[in-house]
Design a protein that fits this description.
By secondary structure, the protein is an alpha/beta fold. The protein is 48% helix and 9% strand. It contains 22 helices and eight strands. α20 packs across α21 and α21 crosses α22. It is globular and about 60 Å long. The model has no long low-confidence stretch (mean pLDDT 94). Bound molecules: cobalt (II) ion. The site of cobalt (II) ion has 4 residues, from loops.
């Protein structure tokens, strides 16, 4: 029986986020939108992740306007990546901010909400999932299994998590393997288990990165096991720390029962354009653009981009010779922190803590606030409970600082009205709801953007 595999194209989001520091402009996408739309992708990932921040901070673009422009030219569903209660920022937001953000994103054209939480704590997903399910535009709501490896993370754990997400009403499940840790035969087993235990109408999608070199093999085994959709990037933005290559996967499946039915020739001019764009981005922003495959990521589990940051921190402190110590320290700190998957923001938090331990030569002598927060439950429940003595004696967290009710914490966060009031007080008198949301996520960056683009003392756009 033919089982066509579908493809989500990531060139407009994860491709350039992974290889070119999220610097692709809308103007560099526009010439190929019509062609991309004709291919027949299941969806085009084009918004969310780091793009929102990058638009405001580096590219002088209004992310909402970018979404409108994309929507005006695309019939293929536009997919966004959303960090649950963190939205696209780094804090927990109040439920009303989360709900309004999701509603606005849907209204402006997001057709697929891919929602994840760094700790796989479903309490952090519920508000965003409920909001997306209630949108009148009826977007697809996809729940993520943030993939990692640890003594508690095995395929049964992820199957169990997927059932909870389906119970919450999601339309599809994504295995999100952000550091390329999912091995081919493990993927085969996981997909088989998911397909056997989830209802037939729940598609399973796989998202991986090539970081450790498994990418295409992992996809092939997952396809043979029945995966419905794979995430791929067109050749110039594929491989290395990005996704497997679209053209390669399409060619691999041609003439088989899994044939995608997509026209590989039609992709050639698109890839040609994006090869040019990649070179422009490398030149303009002084980027490296290429990364070595690193199978050791399996042991230290640090996402690619972060590894070079940590190496630089050590170098600046004149402690380059401690690099191996740092790689050895990472898994220990991760264990102490209750085995969080390493993805934004937990990757940075665990990495910084490990760096401090190595630099001071004494474990937990200096503890950053964020690490304490992670350990005491400010980001949700860690996969393994953090040892009580470690928490209270080593990290010196008081009993009353230990958080068990994360929703009570969310309720203390700024409301939409609080952010609106803050903008008023700063002299922006008529912010749109979108402006308030941009400000809620990235206060300083959004303020700078407004100052540049709006007439003084109002949020009306400059002519
Ligand atoms: Co990714």
């Amino acid at each position: 029986m033919a089982k066509k595999v579908k493809i989500t194209e990531t060139v407009l989001r994860d491709g350039h986020q992974s290889l070119c520091a999220t610097r692709m402009r809308y103007s560099q996408m526009e010439p190929m939108l019509e062609e991309l739309d004709k291919i027949g992708y299941k969806s085009l990932e084009a918004w969310g992740g780091a793009t929102f921040d990058s638009c405001l901070r580096f590219l002088d673009e209004d992310p909402w306007e970018r979404l409108d422009n994309l929507k005006a030219r695309l019939k293929t569903p536009i997919q966004m990546l959303l960090r649950g209660q963190n939205l696209l920022g780094y804090n927990h937001y109040s439920d009303d901010v989360v709900t309004r953000f999701v509603q606005k994103a849907s209204k402006h054209g997001v057709g697929v909400f891919r929602i994840f939480d760094a700790l796989n704590d479903i309490r952090n997903l519920k508000t965003a999932i409920d909001a997306a399910l209630a949108c009148p535009e009826k977007p697809e709501v996809q729940g993520c299994l943030v993939y990692t490896v640890s003594p508690v993370h095995n395929n049964d754990y992820f199957v169990d998590l997927s059932k909870k997400l389906v119970d919450m009403g999601v339309h599809s499940i994504c295995i999100k393997d952000m550091s390329g840790l999912l091995k081919p035969y493990v993927a085969e087993d996981l997909v088989k288990k998911l397909k056997a235990s989830l209802p037939d109408n729940i598609p399973v999608q796989l998202h991986t990165h090539y970081t450790s070199g498994f990418g295409s093999m992992t996809y092939l085994k997952a396809i043979e096991a029945g995966v419905d959709v794979i995430d791929c990037a067109l050749a110039p933005f594929a491989l290395d720390t990005s996704q497997p290559c679209t053209e390669t996967m399409v060619a691999t499946l041609e003439g088989t029962e899994y044939d995608t039915g997509l026209d590989r020739q039609a992709m050639t001019p698109i890839s040609k354009h994006f090869l040019k764009v990649k070179q422009e981005l490398i030149n303009e922003f002084g980027l490296k653009g290429y990364f070595d495959v690193n199978p050791n990521v399996l042991d230290f589990q640090i996402p690619g981009g972060m590894l070079s940051n940590l190496a630089n921190q050590l170098k600046e402190a004149g402690m380059e010779n401690k690099y191996q110590d740092l790689l050895d320290e990472m898994p220990r700190v991760r264990k102490d922190a209750g085995y969080p998957p390493l993805v934004t923001p937990s990757s940075q938090i665990v990495g910084t803590m490990a760096t401090f331990n190595v630099m001071t030569g004494e474990r937990y002598k200096m503890v950053p606030k964020e690490f304490k927060d992670l350990a005491r439950g400010m980001f949700g429940k860690t996969p393994v409970e953090v040892d009580h003595d470690f928490l209270t004696k080593t990290l010196k967290v008081a009993e009353n600082e230990i958080i068990t009710d994360i929703k009570a914490e969310d309720a203390k966060a700024h409301s939409f009205a609080d952010f609106e009031k803050e903008l008023h007080e700063k002299g922006f008198l008529n912010p749109t709801e979108e402006d308030v949301l941009s400000y809620a996520l990235f206060p300083q960056v959004a303020e700078e953007f407004f100052k540049k683009h709006y007439a003084p003392m109002t949020a009306y756009k400059k002519a």
